[in-house]
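This follows on from our talk about sequence and fold. Go ahead and set the record down below:
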Amino acid sequence: MERYRLEISPRKKSARWEDIRMRKVQRDEIARIKLAALSHEDFEDWIERERAKGLKDASIRREFGVLCQVCRMCRKWRWMTHNPTELVEKPKNSKPRKRRISNQEIEAICAELKVNLPCKYVYQEVGLVWLLAIETGMRCSEITTLEKRQLFLEDYYLHLEETKNGDERDVPLSPRAIEIINSVPGRGDRVFRVRSKSVDTIYRNARDKLNIKDLRFHDSRHEAASRFVRDNKYNLMELCAVMGWRDPKMAQDYYAPTASELARRLRD
């Protein structure tokens, strides 16, 4: 895992999360087993230990995915004669989240982060990053790495040069999205000063202080997709282009209409 972390992970966008997951696994007893002695039963036992700690299958699946990559590289380096992870049944993915964000929750978090005041502090930027995510469907990392040269505000869009799936993407901007961007003082070439890691910490602290349950930052992406459909902004293929989905089936995972929204469509 040390060689993988030094040579392979740095090439990936997920390097930080891979590092966190590998360090966690290295504290487990499975890390003390010699490569030649590793069997699929060892990985199955590790999965059961993680479940016993209360970890959900979706989280275990992500950690196991890193272990699979490590074992594949060990075979390539000729440190192993076979890959024992290939015989392990992967933990199942959890059901797609359907958590929507209410207007009351938006107002409460914005008030807590003092979004309506002139933007001087990093915690205020966090609120603006969150609002922009809801307005555009962009990922947190896509927003916090934005540079001013990527903005084409006169034409109401911005250009993402590097995204999670490796594709470039143009993101249409509503007047509200442009208003949010223009309210940020920025730092040099960057639009936002705050980093993605700080966004997560500050956002969770504000959410927990308000006692808002089961609301993740990434739910903003679900909220954006659901609002686009609710307000008839895009058809399916346009929605996929805006959100950066190669597979239209992703719309099923992210679109989460409420019962009242569906009933309203019947009346309209």
